[in-house]
Write a structure and sequence with these properties.
There is one protein chain. The chain is mainly α. Among the domains are: 102 residues, Alpha Horseshoe (Serine Threonine Protein Phosphatase 5, Tetratricopeptide repeat); 82 residues, Alpha Horseshoe (Serine Threonine Protein Phosphatase 5, Tetratricopeptide repeat).
Length: 367
C-alpha cells in the first residue's frame, strides 16, 4: 500500500496549512492593527462618549510625536472615565515629552496614589523628580521600583547615573555591572561604568568600557566621556580626536568645546584653546569655567591685563571661587603688584587653596 503514502502526505500538508491560516487569523483578530487618525475620527464622531476611542487616538498622536494633540485626547478620555489609569499614565508621558515635568509628576503621583506599585508610574515619577532636581525622591521611587522588579534595566541604569551624580562611584559601578550582566550590548551601561571607573582612576579599564560604548553606539556622549578618560591618562591627541568627533555629531554642545579647549591648553596649542574659549564666552559670557580657562591662556601668553580682566569677571560672578582668586593673585605677583596679589592669595587660602600663598611666603613675596 505504499502508493497511498504520497496522498496522505499531501492531505496532512493541506490540513497543516489550514490550521496555520486559522491560527494566523485568530492572532490578527486578537491583536488588530492600530487604526488611523481618520478611522478614529469617524469612530469618535459616532461614539463621542467612548473614552477608549479618545485613548487610542491619543496613542496614535503619541506615536506621531504630536504630544499636545495627544494630551487633548487623553484629557477627554479622563473626563469620560476618571479611573482610566492607562490614560493617566500616557498623559504623564506626553507632558514629560514636552518638558512639563511638574505636570507629568502630578499625573504619575495621582496614579501612584491609586496603584502604589505601578512600575510605569514609579519610573515616570523618578524621571520627573530628576528633571526637577529632587534627586532624593527620585532615588526613593527607583528603589521602590527595583524592590518590585529587580531586573528593570532602565531603573537600574537610572540608579547608576544617580550614584554617579552623587560621586558614589563604587555603587554606580555595581549597578552598571548588573545591567551588563543582563544585556552585554547596552551602550549606556558601558558609558556609565566607564565614567565610574575613570573617576576611580582606573583609566585602562575605563577606556576599555568606553571603547565598547563607542563601538555599540558612536554618539557624542560616548566620544566625550572617552575623550575625558584619554585626557586624564595623558593621551591628549586621542582626547582631541574624540572631542572633534563629538563636535561633528553635536556642534552646538558647549561642554564639548570646553573639554577641547582645556585639552588644547594642556597640549600647548594655546591659540586653538583661546579660540574655543572665545566661542564659549561669545554665547555664554557668564561661564565662570570658560573665563578661568581663557584667563589661564592669557596668563601663559603673558597677556596679564587680559588675564586679570577674565579672573576679575569670574570673581564678580562667583566671589568664593578660590581658583580665580588664586590665579589673579599669581598674576598680580608676576606684575609686581604684591599687596593685591597677597590679598587675593590670602582669600584663596581662606577658601582652602593655600599652596600658592605658602610658596609666596616662602619666597618672601607675602608676609
Amino acid at each position: 500500500m505504499n502508493w497511498m503514502r504520497p496522498t496522505l502526505a499531501k492531505n496532512n500538508l493541506f490540513l497543516l496549512t489550514i490550521i496555520s491560516v486559522c491560527l494566523f487569523l485568530e492572532a490578527v483578530s486578537a491583536h488588530p492593527s492600530p487604526r488611523s487618525i481618520e478611522e478614529l475620527d469617524q469612530a469618535i464622531a459616532q461614539q463621542p462618549d467612548n473614552a477608549q476611542l479618545f485613548f487610542e487616538r491619543g496613542q496614535t498622536h503619541m506615536a506621531g510625536q504630536a504630544f499636545p494633540r495627544a494630551i487633548l485626547d487623553l484629557d477627554q478620555a479622563l473626563r469620560l472615565d476618571a479611573e482610566f489609569l492607562d490614560a493617566l499614565a500616557l498623559r504623564g508621558q506626553a507632558y514629560g515629552e514636552l518638558g512639563n515635568w511638574s505636570r507629568a509628576l502630578q499625573d504619575y503621583t495621582t496614579l501612584l496614589d491609586r496603584e502604589p506599585g505601578d512600575e510605569q508610574a514609579l519610573f515616570g515619577a523618578a524621571q520627573a523628580r530628576l528633571q526637577l532636581k529632587d534627586t532624593h525622591q527620585a532615588l526613593a521611587h527607583i528603589n521602590r521600583l527595583l524592590d518590585i522588579s529587580p531586573r528593570h534595566m532602565q531603573a537600574r541604569l537610572m540608579r547608576g547615573n544617580i550614584f554617579l551624580e552623587q560621586k558614589e562611584y563604587q555603587q554606580a559601578r555595581g549597578e552598571f555591572d548588573m545591567v551588563l550582566a543582563q544585556d552585554g550590548q547596552l551602550a549606556d551601561a558601558y558609558v556609565g561604568r566607564g565614567v565610574a571607573l575613570r573617576e576611580m582612576e582606573l583609566h585602562p579599564e575605563a577606556i576599555r568600557d568606553l571603547n565598547q560604548a563607542v563601538r555599540l553606539q558612536p554618539n557624542a556622549k560616548a566620544f566625550v566621556e572617552r575623550g575625558v578618560a584619554f585626557g586624564r591618562s595623558g593621551e591628549l591627541r586621542h582626547a582631541l580626536d574624540d572631542f572633534n568627533a563629538a563636535l561633528q555629531l553635536s556642534p552646538k554642545a558647549a561642554n564639548i568645546y570646553f573639554h577641547r579647549a582645556t585639552t588644547y591648553f594642556l597640549a600647548g596649542e594655546h591659540q586653538k584653546a583661546l579660540a574655543d574659549f572665545d566661542r564659549l564666552l561669545l554665547h555664554d559670557p557668564d561661564n565662570v569655567q570658560a573665563l578661568l580657562g581663557r584667563g589661564l591662556v592669557h596668563q601663559r601668553q603673558e597677556r596679564f591685563d587680559r588675564a586679570i580682566e577674565d579672573y576679575t569677571r569670574a570673581i564678580h560672578l562667583d566671589e568664593k571661587n578660590s581658583g580665580a582668586l588664586n590665579n589673579r593673585g599669581m598674576v598680580y605677583l608676576q606684575t609686581g603688584q604684591l599687596a593685591l596679589g597677597c590679598a587675593d592669595l590670602l582669600k584663596a587660602c581662606d577658601l582652602g587653596q593655600c599652596a600658592t600663598l605658602d610658596f609666596a611666603r616662602k619666597e618672601g613675596y607675602c608676609p
